[in-house]
Amino acid sequence: MALMAYLSYMLAELLSLSGILTVFFCGIVMSHYAWHNVTESSRITTRHIFATLSFIAETFIFLYVGMDALDMDKWKTTQASFKTSIGIFGVIISLILLGRAAFVFPLSILSNFMSGNSEKAPITFKHQVVIWWAGLMRGAVSIALAYNQFTFSGVTQDPVHATIITSTIVVVFFTTLVFGFLTRPMISAMLPQHRHREPAGGRSTGSNSPKDEFILPFLGDEDASGSGSGFVQAKRSISMMLERPIHTV
Question: Which of 74-83, 197-206, 225-234 has the highest mean predicted lDDT (pLDDT)?
Answer without folding.
Answer: 74-83
